[in-house]
UniProtKB/TrEMBL annotation:
Mg(2+) binds at residues 70, 125, 127-128, 271. Keywords: Hydrolase, Magnesium, Metal-binding. The gene is hisN_1. This is 3'(2'),5'-bisphosphate nucleotidase. Its cofactor is Mg(2+). It comes from Gimesia chilikensis. InterPro entries: DPNP (IPR006239), Inositol_monoP_metal-BS (IPR020583), Inositol_monoP_superfamily (IPR051090), Inositol_monophosphatase-like (IPR000760), Inositol_monophosphatase_CS (IPR020550).
Length: 328
């Protein structure tokens, strides 16, 4: 890759940082009352706002680039949802975004409405880990650029992952460019990025793995069976969202397992692209449960892959071999 992608990187970092800070503001306003009512509106306000600001920034800088985002504005346009749209407008106004009229907000969100593969496109999950967001735990704003089927740039905003040496609530912004390494910087302020690397653990008995909090997203019973077979005795670290990729990339866990809970589910590209590049550029390895590379040239789903296995590289082939003996 001879291109430096400097403009893409700066645009993506600025947009993800802005969106992550908006999500953090909305998350901090979630109260017990909201949770008791199982009110999903905070997450909806936050993810539409996040998608709006990121797509607006990408469209201004790269008007030709399609964006495959998780959300679209269709349901916001009906009169029954006008009040809801107004709440998003109010949030964006409070955040200092220029001209967030209801029409503009819908237009910005819909810049993220591409669904099919093209030679160069962005993919965006404005809030990955919705359930973690509502529990006030981990979530991520995830953005990646894919060129000719290869992830060339990935940015992950993790407002609840602490940056070493900073206030624990500072949050971390991660990024990677293909061939140029993986980096972390505090979410809240400009600072020289710090290079991050995976662990060098080569013995399962010393390893730690992470997995989803939700057993409906990744089978806890299979990971437990596998851990027993491989002699992994440390308790798994459970966290929501692509924050798991960040945890492996910065050497706080050696493995991330995402084991299918039902055969028909296909992973979505926006749930993985940024995280995959982060781990690979930190020296790790990512495949599906059969050891096949994830294919980002198949549309918005990873059609040809099942589950996801992430390791520091040293532990990968043995883990895949052991998985082969389990039934999914
Ligand atoms: N059966 C499933 N298997 C794997 N992932 C799933 C499943 N159902 C939903 N997801 C996705 O898991 C992601 C969150 O994962 P995690 O547990 O790592 O936080 C969400 O993006 C969610 O997608 P969606 O938002 O389309 O429901
Ligand atoms: Mg997601």
């Amino acid at each position: 890759m001879t291109e430096t992608l400097e403009q893409e990187l700066q645009t993506a970092l600025l947009a993800v940082r802005q969106a992550a800070l908006i999500c953090r503001t909305v998350q901090s306003a979630i109260t017990d009352e909201v949770l008791e009512k199982k009110d999903k509106s905070p997450v909806t306000i936050a993810d539409f706002s996040s998608q709006a600001v990121i797509c607006r920034a990408l469209h201004n800088a790269f008007p030709e680039d399609p964006i495959i985002g998780e959300e679209d504005a269709a349901e916001l346009k009906g009169p029954e949802n006008r009040e809801f749209l107004e709440k998003i407008v109010a949030e964006l106004t409070a955040d200092g975004i220029q001209d967030p009229t209801p029409e503009n907000v819908c237009t910005w969100i819909d810049y993220g409405g591409a669904k099919t593969y093209s030679d160069r496109f962005w993919t965006l999950d404005p809030i990955d880990g919705t359930k973690g967001f509502l529990r006030k735990e981990q979530y991520a704003v995830s953005l990646a650029l894919i060129v000719e089927g290869k992830i060339v740039l990935g940015v992950l905003g993790c407002p609840n992952l602490p940056f070493p040496g900073e206030n624990p609530t500072a949050g971390t912004l991660y990024y990677a460019i293909a061939g140029q390494g993986a980096y972390a910087l505090p979410l809240v302020r400009e600072q020289e990025p710090k290079r991050i690397r995976v662990t060098t653990t080569s013995d399962f008995s010393e390893s730690r793995f992470c997995e989803s909090v939700e057993s409906g997203h990744s089978s806890h019973s299979h990971s437990q069976q596998l851990a027993e077979r491989l002699g992994i005795s440390k308790e798994p670290r459970r966290l929501d969202s692509q924050a798991k990729y960040a945890v492996v990339a910065q050497g706080e866990a050696d493995i991330y397992m995402r084991l299918p809970t039902r055969p028909g589910y296909r992973e979505k590209i926006w749930d993985h692209a940024a995280g995959v590049l982060l781990v690979e550029e930190a020296g790790g390895e990512v495949t599906d449960i059969h050891g096949n590379p994830l294919q980002f040239d198949q549309g918005y789903e990873l059609k040809n892959n099942q589950g996801v296995i992430v390791t520091n590289g040293h532990l990968h082939s043995l883990l895949i071999q052991s998985l082969d003996e389990l039934e999914f």
